[in-house]
Structures are given as C-alpha cells and as structure tokens.
Amino acid sequence: MGNALIVDDSSTERKILLGYLQELGITVTTAESGEEALDKLKGSIPDIIILDVVLPGKSGFEICREIKADTATGKVPVIICSTKGSEMDKFWGMKQGADAYIPKPVDKEEFFSTVKRLIK
After folding, report:
1. CATH number, domain at 61?
2. How far is CA 118 from the centre of its chain?
3. pTM for the full model?
4. Each residue of 12-29: pLDDT tens digit?
5. Which of 5, 16, 23, 100: disulfide with 46, CB 3.0–4.6 Å?
C-alpha cells in the first residue's frame, strides 16, 4: 500500500504504530528525533509521515513546518500523533501544515481510516 516514516522518541509508541501500519500492508521506516527524520527524508520520500510533537531537539510542530515548506516533501501527508491532545494543540498542529491530528493513546480504527484517507 506504500511506505511510511514514523517519528517518535518512545520505542513503545513506535512499535504500536509500526504494527498498525504493517497491518495495512505499509512498509515502515522509523526515526527517534526530528533531525533523524529530516536526514532520512533526504534519502527517500515516504507516502505518509506519522509525527510525534514532543521530541528531543526540535518539536514535531517545527519538523512539520520544515517538511511542508520543502518542495520535495511538502505534499507528503503528515499525521501528528501526540499526548498533547487539547483543542489548542490540535489547532496549532493543523496550522503547522499537518493533514490530521490524532491524540494518544491512538484509536486504532481512527488511525486506520485516517491513513487510508490520506494515502490514495
């Protein structure tokens, strides 16, 4: 179905999201920081990016802005998955260019439908 990049510093969260994406038949690459994600994006462009907000170094909001500002990656859908789930966090995430915002713990069905909608 495609390939995805998961950016999350929590190994537990990475494993959960990895499992969900693999169930959908998606090949997954992971990164533990925004900087690592940006490096990986120089090598290959995924079909979708799953991005945490609270990361070491740059925040997920900053990384999302950089991804969306780059002509090579600007059209790649970004789903922010974060424990920061207030309406203001969601609003701010969408203002940074995110295509969807799913609060943690991630609801599997919501995640599946969002990924399917964004990967066409």
Report:
1. 3.40.50.2300
2. 12
3. 0.96
4. 999 999 999 999 999 999
5. 5
